[in-house]
Amino acid sequence: MTGAAPDAPDGPQKPARRRGPGRPRQDEAAEGPGTQERIRLAARSEFAARGYDKTSVRGIAKAAGVDPALVHHYFGSKDDLFAAAVELTMEPALVVPAVVGEGPDGIGERLARYFLGIWENPATRAPLLAVIRSALTHEAAAKVLRTLVLRRVLERVAADLDVPDPTFRAELAASHMVGIAILRYVVRVEPLASADPEAIVALVAPTLQRYLTED
């Protein structure tokens, strides 16, 4: 006795939908509106803990609980993700209005206080340490430092003040603040490493003020 033929499908089957290059699967893309933020936070944590060299997109994806394809879909390359992670720390879109908004008077103090503030906060210090250390040996990290810290923050501050040679002035201000960061947080030279942040602001602010406002 032969068995009954299997039931025929109710209708024609739709072909499987192919995804284009670089696009995540539908189930990968439906991670929710907080997915990009979760990836950026995971990237910031991984870069801070492991440094640029030892951090991988796969490791970041695992920490964020997503497929690596989704990381590439949202952020592209590892370099782009590194820049996004550092930008999350510095928030240039918020910094420039806060520093410039009250006018040129006191801008040196506001800039020094902002810069030291993100370094004094353990949550934001670690990613910046990763940037500084990596920038000495990796062009990708150096590019992030140049683009984010110099152009997107200091150059915009100087340009909004409408002073001559804003790029040169921004570079001088950057050299001052980055130098302090290296000596205080990376090399930990005393007594600078243990000095009161307010004492540093008081001494550094007039120099930054001169860089950014004097003709």
Description:
The chain has 215 residues and is mainly alpha-helical. The protein folds into two domains: 26-88, Homeodomain-like (Arc Repressor Mutant, subunit A, Orthogonal Bundle), CATH 1.10.10; 91-213, Tetracycline Repressor, domain 2 (Orthogonal Bundle). It is 70% helix and 0% strand. The protein is built from eleven helices and no strands. Helix 6 runs antiparallel to helix 7 (107-120). The longest helix is centred in the C-terminal third of the chain and has 22 residues, at 139-160. The termini are far apart.
Looking at this protein, list some descriptive labels.
Arc Repressor Mutant, subunit A, 11 helices, globular, 0% strand, mainly alpha
Topology at a glance:
Blueprint: H1 26-29, H2 35-54, H3 57-64, H4 68-75, H5 78-90, H6 92-100, H7 107-120, H8 122-135, H9 139-160, H10 166-186, H11 197-213
Helix pairs in contact: 2-3, 2-5, 2-8, 3-4, 5-8, 5-9, 6-7, 6-9, 7-11, 8-9, 9-10, 10-11
Summarize the structure.
The protein is mainly α and 215 residues long. It is built from eleven helices and no strands.
Low-confidence stretches: 1-33
Q: Order of helices and strands, N to C?
A: HHHHHHHHHHH
Percent helix:
55-70%
Tally of alpha and pi helices: 11
Output the CATH topology of the largest domain. Answer: Tetracycline Repressor, domain 2
